[in-house]
Specification:
- The protein is 40% helix and 19% strand.
- The chain contains 12 helices and 14 strands.
- The strands form 3 sheets. It has a 5-stranded parallel β-sheet, with helices on both faces.
- By secondary structure, the protein is α/β, with parallel strands linked by helices.
- It has 2 domains: 7-84 and 94-176, 3-Layer(aba) Sandwich (Rossmann fold); 181-297 and 339-358, Argininosuccinate synthetase, chain A, domain 2 (Alpha-Beta Complex).
């Protein structure tokens, strides 16, 4: 028999699901519940969450502003790698989970809790991401996953439980929600319900962070983004902190309809799922970062990064942020950014981005070498020997085939 739980730290959003989980934990485990709510830039007022927790009898309530830490220590390192899962997804949900788990474990240590709990379902990726992070940070922690334990298997049963336990049910929770949403400063995602059939186009009302491209401004806008060692530091010449930078990128790109993605992805647990993502600032940041890398990274270093990127993206998607292999790859990626410093000017126009200029004090671009005019730095006759040596193995193979 497992030991009784004395105190559990719950990742608490204040919504219907986690409010039901809170009461269920109190009933099922007869334990004290500590709530933790992370402000990652969801764009919602979080103080009402405190009132909801207090109403449910919670004494220790944590509401932490983690926006700068999220962007500085998680989003920016990931973008140094130009990470994309399955060539498209900018990992907006995936990258938030390790930070939430890290703070949750820290609170467990502060409060003497012997367990942590989350509201992720047994079908999705988030249960894996949370729990791998928990165990990496506190190997002996007890993890409670209500969706894998209770018998509340439908939206109706969840609402009935809430009503019978005096838990406030928002008006839009009576009946079927049109889709499930996750949001933070990097992205907002929608999935489920009306989006479950990939043959049906996503309705326009789903999008909240990006202008419909057809309705975007008819006048292009040029912006400048400056980088130091691979991380953005300035936009339009103005230095901003990490969270403020991403907020401004979201505003600029979203205004021009940039950053929409409708994708069917392969979940870690095995099934395919369709998600509609809006990542305006991240889409702009990725484009700008690759642009400054184009003049500051050595060819083979850039190609090696591109080869390693899918592995790095998989590790984040699957929940292995705190794994030694992710940390090893991060060290290589960070080293590659030593000279990725400079400024890129980008034109934004109706969901399109165009590089107008790029410059860096550490540029490897040499006009003297690439000019079509006369130069005194490159001997074109050297190319003959280069080609002969590259062709040697091909010629030997051809000779062998001719003997057959």
């Amino acid at each position: 028999m497992p030991k009784p739980v004395k105190r559990v730290v719950l990742a608490y959003s204040g919504g219907l699901d986690t409010s039901v989980i809170l009461r269920w934990l109190q009933e099922k485990y007869q334990c004290e519940v500590v709530t933790f709510t992370a402000d990652l830039g969801q764009g919602e007022e979080l103080e009402p969450v405190r009132a909801k927790a207090e109403k449910l009898g919670i004494k220790q309530i944590y509401i932490d502003d983690l926006r700068d830490e999220f962007v500085r220590d998680y989003v920016f390192p990931m973008f140094r790698a130009n990470a994309l899962y399955e060539g498209q997804y900018l990992l907006g949900t995936s990258i938030a989970r390790p930070l939430i788990a890290k703070r949750q474990i820290a609170i467990a240590e502060e409060t003497g809790a012997d367990a942590v709990a989350h509201g992720a379902t047994g079908k999705g990726n988030d249960q894996v991401r949370f729990e791998l992070s928990y165990y990496a940070l506190m190997p002996n922690i007890r993890v409670i996953s209500p969706w894998r334990e209770w018998d509340l298997t439908s939206r109706t049963s969840l609402i009935e439980y809430a009503q019978s336990h005096q838990i406030t049910v928002p008006a839009d929770k009576f009946g079927e929600a049109p889709f499930s949403v996750d949001s933070n400063l990097l992205h907002i995602s929608a999935e489920g319900k009306i989006l479950e059939d990939p043959a049906i186009a996503a309705p326009e009302f789903i999008y909240s962070r990006t202008t419909r491209p057809e309705d975007a401004p008819d006048t292009p806008e040029e912006i400048s983004i400056s980088f130091e060692h691979g991380d953005p530091t300035h936009v339009n010449g103005k230095k901003l902190g990490p969270a403020d930078l991403l907020t401004e990128f979201n505003r600029l790109a979203g205004k021009h309809g940039i950053g929409r993605l409708d994708m069917v992805e392969n979940r870690f647990v095995g099934m395919k799922s369709r998600g509609v993502y809006e990542t305006p600032g991240g889409t702009l940041l990725l484009f700008a970062h690759r642009s400054i890398e184009s003049i500051t990274l050595d060819r083979e270093a850039a190609h090696l990064k591109d080869e390693l990127m899918p592995r790095y993206a998989h590790l984040i998607y699957q929940g292995f942020w705190f794994s030694p292999d992710r940390e090893m790859l991060q060290a290589l990626i960070n080293h590659s950014q030593e000279f990725v410093t400079g400024t890129v000017v980008i034109k934004l126009y109706k969901a399109a981005m165009t590089v107008m200029s790029r410059q860096s004090p550490f540029s490897l671009y040499s006009k003297k070498h690439v000019t079509f005019e006369e130069d005194d730095v490159y001997n074109q006759q050297d190319a003959e020997g280069f080609i002969q040596l590259q062709a040697l193995r091909l010629r030997l193979q051809a000779h062998r085939h001719n003997k057959l």
